[in-house]
């Protein structure tokens, strides 16, 4: 898309040889899908040079812009991307749902929406190892609960009647598919009367628990069920031997939501056979020493990298304009520079890995500061991150026309069909 152009043309070349020329009116170019796929097959692990030219009344002879390059990787991405679509409001919503997008086309299909549930809140979906054969999601409000789809059967779990009888929030499916770790959060909002930040979302309580799908019971550890420490955002290691999470020592309310609220990044060993946690809790990022506040830890499927979000404070980074992605190399425990993925002005927050550990999706408000949109980013085998790009749409104007935020993106390998 090139604003202000009446007629626009893109010439694509490789090794100084033209391989495709596409044009369009009103400043919009749509690449034919078959020709685009053929082009990518020809230039795997190569570079496409793009030359854009435009014409309008002020420039009837045309303007040729400086060319730019697109690198083509032969590392495949998962076939589908799931996300929630919701208005970026504070308190209420009208229509929301979890959707799946075919990344080989522009097809978008609803997985579950609140049209089927009297406009309840539908949220926090997750999958085991990027598989579409199982899924879980929450539904808040009348008739709500946690819905678990497994082996073709959809069931509702009422966590207020089992284990510690607590509602569950943020999920993390164990790699072997038999357990799901949850945090149980009591979440509140406070609205600012001045300043650039409109709202602060914070927890007054949060604990950790693990749900055993096969036994139908809940595993807890007294250390992670106290009022003294807030635990949230669980994430399993690639082999399921460690549970990572964000942790903050509690303070008296209402001071808790102030800039003194900082979460560390920690991990604890877990034995799925004995269903027990290890004695030692390791701190990987100490916010009291390094500053900031950690959320959303996610480990790459190959076990090499840990990606997380760092804000100045708090536990809900989507509302923090300073929030950025950070990465740790778990082999060396050294930081990896992912500044190319971040925007210095607006929030970069929720993220997840594709199954091949070469692609990442994350939400960012960099386009307008209000709506969260999805960006795809590549990391090569040497651990070097590359420049991200906006999730493609058939018509690029959709990114302005669609008045919805993309929330909680997750990759899956195939399409999912729930028996609703």
Largest sheet: 5 strands, antiparallel
Question: Quick check: average pLDDT?
Answer: 93
CATH class of the largest domain: Mainly Beta
Which homologous superfamily in CATH is the superfamily of the largest domain?
TolB, C-terminal domain
Helix % is under 10%
CATH fold node name of the largest domain: Neuraminidase
Which stretches are low in confidence, meaning pLDDT under 50 for 5 or more residues running?
A: none
Number of strands: 29
How is the secondary structure organized here?
Layout: E1 7-14, E2 17-25, H1 33-42, E3 47-56, E4 59-64, E5 68-71, E6 80-86, E7 97-102, E8 108-113, E9 121-126, E10 134-140, E11 145-150, E12 153-157, E13 171-173, E14 179-191, E15 199-212, E16 217-219, E17 229-236, E18 242-249, E19 264-271, E20 276-285, H2 287-290, E21 293-299, E22 305-311, E23 324-329, E24 334-336, E25 348-353, E26 359-364, E27 373-378, E28 389-390, H3 398-401, E29 405-412
Antiparallel strand pairs: 1-2, 1-3, 3-4, 3-5, 6-7, 6-29, 7-8, 9-10, 10-11, 11-12, 13-14, 14-15, 15-16, 17-18, 18-19, 19-20, 21-22, 22-23, 23-24, 25-26, 26-27, 27-28
List its traits.
globular, mainly beta, Neuraminidase, about 425 residues, about 5% helix, single chain
Give a verbal description of the structure.
With 420 residues, the protein is mainly beta. The protein folds into two domains: 7-71, no CATH class; 80-412, 6 Propeller (Neuraminidase). 4% of the residues lie in helices and 47% in strands. It has helices at 33-42, 287-290, 398-401; strands spanning 7-14, 17-25, 47-56, 59-64, 68-71, 80-86, 97-102, 108-113, 121-126, 134-140, 145-150, 153-157, 171-173, 179-191, 199-212, 217-219, 229-236, 242-249, 264-271, 276-285, 293-299, 305-311, 324-329, 334-336, 348-353, 359-364, 373-378, 389-390, 405-412. Strands 1, 2, 3, 4 and 5 form a five-stranded antiparallel β-sheet that branches. A four-stranded antiparallel β-sheet has the order 8-7-6-29, with no helix packed on it. Strand 3 and strand 4 (59-64) form a beta hairpin. The longest helix is centred in the first third of the chain and has 10 residues, at 33-42. It is globular and about 75 Å long.
């Amino acid at each position: 898309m090139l604003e202000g152009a009446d007629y626009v043309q893109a010439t694509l070349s490789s090794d100084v040889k033209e391989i495709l020329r596409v044009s369009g009116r009103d400043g919009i170019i749509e690449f034919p899908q078959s020709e685009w796929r053929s082009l990518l097959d020809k230039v795997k692990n190569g570079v496409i040079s793009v030359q854009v030219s435009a014409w309008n009344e002020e420039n009837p002879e045309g303007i040729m812009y400086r060319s730019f390059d697109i690198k083509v990787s032969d590392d495949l991405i998962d076939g589908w991307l799931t996300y929630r679509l919701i208005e970026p409001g504070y308190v209420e919503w009208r229509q929301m749902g979890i959707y799946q997008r075919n990344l080989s086309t522009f097809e978008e299909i609803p997985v579950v929406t609140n049209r089927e549930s009297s406009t309840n809140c539908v949220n926090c979906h997750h999958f085991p190892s990027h598989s579409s054969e199982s899924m879980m999601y929450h539904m808040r409000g009348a008739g709500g609960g946690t819905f678990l789809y497994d082996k073709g059967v959809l069931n509702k779990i009422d966590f207020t009647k089992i284990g510690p009888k607590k509602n569950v929030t943020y999920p993390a499916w164990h790699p072997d598919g038999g357990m799901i770790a949850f945090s149980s959060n009591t979440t509140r909002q406070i609205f600012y009367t001045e300043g650039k930040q409109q709202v602060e979302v914070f927890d007054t309580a949060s604990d950790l628990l693990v749900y055993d799908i096969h036994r139908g019971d809940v595993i807890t550890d007294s250390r992670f069920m106290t009022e003294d420490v807030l635990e949230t955002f669980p994430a399993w290691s690639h082999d399921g031997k460690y549970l990572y999470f964000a942790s903050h020592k509690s303070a008296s309310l209402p001071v808790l939501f102030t800039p003194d609220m900082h979460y560390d990044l920690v991990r604890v060993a877990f034995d799925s056979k004995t269903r027990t946690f290890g004695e030692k809790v390791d701190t990987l990022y100490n916010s009291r020493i390094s500053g900031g506040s950690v959320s959303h830890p996610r480990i790459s499927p190959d076990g090499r990298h840990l990606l997380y979000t760092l804000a100045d404070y708090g536990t809900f980074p989507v509302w923090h304009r300073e929030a950025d992605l950070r990465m740790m190399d778990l082999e060396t425990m050294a930081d990896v520079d992912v500044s190319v993925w971040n925007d210095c002005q607006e929030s970069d927050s929720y993220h997840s890995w594709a199954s091949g550990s070469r692609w990442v999706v994350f939400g960012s408000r960099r386009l307008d500061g209000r709506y969260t949109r999805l960006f795809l980013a590549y990391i090569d085998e040497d651990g070097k991150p590359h420049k991200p790009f906006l999730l493609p749409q058939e018509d690029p104007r959709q990114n302005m026309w669609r008045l919805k935020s993309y929330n909680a993106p997750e990759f899956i390998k195939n399409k999912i069909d729930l028996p609703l």
